[in-house]
Request: fold
Amino acid sequence: MDLLDSINNISLKKLTDDELSALIPQIRERLIQNVANTGGHLASNLGVVELTVALHKVLNLDEDKLISMAERAKKAGI
Reply:
């Protein structure tokens, strides 16, 4: 079983750096599989895997607010 299949937002905070390093390629592979099945853009998703894992590791996203520049641009109609 992949590490990816056994985690959730809470357990991600408990992973070691080595486990996080093993998780990142699994996330990329899952993204590639999903995009191959459904179509869509891949490069931008692959480019933010480390950033997303890091944000989930250090923030409590159930309570902390996170606004991306892309989301701000979309809301502004840019």
User: Anything to note?
Assistant: The CA atoms of residues 56 and 64 lie 10 Å apart. The two ends are 42 Å apart (CA to CA).
